[in-house]
Amino acid sequence: DLKGTFTLHNGVQMPYFGLGVYLSEDGEEVANAVNWALQEGYRHIDTASIYKNEAGVGEGIRQSGIDRQDLFVVSKVWNGDQGYESTLKAFEDSLNRLKLDYLDLYLVHWPVEGKYKETWRAMEYLYREKRVRAIGVSNFLQHHLEDLLADAETVPMVNQMEFHPYLVQQDLIDFCNKNTIQYEAWSPLMQGHIFEMDIMKEMARKYNRTIAQIVLRWDLQKGVVTIPKSSKKERIIANADIFDFELAPEDVKLMDGLDRGKRFGPDPDNFDF
Ligand code: NAD
Predict the structure, then answer these.
(1) In 3D, which of 204, 270, 187, 271 has the Cα closest to residue 242?
(2) H or E element: which one contains 27?
(3) Annotated binding site for substrate
(4) Ligand 1 pocket mutation, candidates 139, 144, 189, 267, criterion most atoms within 8 A of CB
(5) 3-state secondary structure 114-158
(6) Rounded distance, CA 271 to CA 273, Å?
(7) Domain boundaries, the chain
(8) Is the CB–ligand 1 distance for residue 58 below 6 Å?
(9) Residue 9 near ligand 1, beta carbon < 6 Å
(10) Is residue 47 a contact partner of residue 54, using CB atoms and an 8 Å limit?
């Protein structure tokens, strides 16, 4: 059942499993991916204005015929739009492209120095005005969160971070858990590199599952929301087939132990976009 959810600190139910659409092309490609996912039982779609595919995501949602209230749609404010007024405008632009009248979750995409607190004030406004059911951040390390929390009126409901067996950041997960911030994984499949790992091939054989299913199941058992990306129908379907088996605790530990602090994406302390 793809309808498993985690409860955010404001009581909103966030489906544990979603579809990522970074690098899915706007138009037919992303619309099909979204529609196939929704037909399969996915209810959570993760896009961003910088992905330039919000229009196609909206198209896929409408093609699916599924009630808006049953969906969990996420977008993000891009770095160049950070600041108070510009965030409010970026939000309306995203809604217009999606052809929706609210979002379930809106995220600050990256912690842009000197800007993210003003951006957060705009996020709080959107939340107060009920334009969005939850607000959160992405790529915020502990020091960014501490700095934000010092002035925030609303604690972010979510922190979406690069997360996979080579980048666990357990201290950050613990910090988020302590502060009621739901942890969420981006690039859960290591942008495809997970499929090259011998140890993952072994685990897949052991459980008679695909490597993707093993790592996404690990996310679930660690309490981390996950949003694997694919635009291929068979993969979209297979990736989500993780609700009828369980990893033994020692295998969860084994996977935790693969951590080597290795990023495939940018460093939140040193990005230049
Ligand atoms: P991912 O780890 O989900 O990997 C996607 C890659 O794996 C694609 O190349 C896909 O073709 C391949 N793949 C998927 N299923 C497969 C399967 N079953 N077998 C073989 N290959 C398979 O990478 P991602 O897209 O970077 O991350 C997922 C989502 O996270 C994104 O789509 C986006 O929504 C989000 N994201 C957010 C940020 C952020 O800064 N907040 C950054 C990157 C990604």
Answers:
(1) 204
(2) none
(3) 109
(4) 189
(5) CCHHHHHHHHHHHHHCCCECCEEEECCCHHHHHHHHHHCCCCCCE
(6) 6
(7) 14-256
(8) no
(9) no
(10) yes
Whether this model's pTM surpasses 0.90: yes
Convert the pLDDT of each residue in 104-163 to its tens digit: 999 999 999 999 999 999 999 999 999 999 999 999 999 999 999 999 999 999 999 999
- Amino acid present at 157: M
Among candidates 41, 44, 48, 39, which has minimal Cα distance to 17? 44
pLDDT of residue 3: 66
Instruction: State both tokens at 197.
Output: 């790992």
Which residue's alpha carbon is at the smallest distance from atom 28 of ligand 1?
187
Tokens for 189, please give them: 């499949």
What letter represents residue 124's amino acid?
E
Q: Does this complex have an ipTM over 0.95?
A: yes
Contact in structure between 231 and 22 (CB atoms under 8 Å): no
CB 200 within 8 A of CB 194: yes
Instruction: Report CA(133)–ligand 1 centroid distance (Å).
Output: 25
Is the CATH code 3.20.20.100 the one for domain 14-256?
yes
| Triad 19, 22, 23: Cα angle to 5° | 125
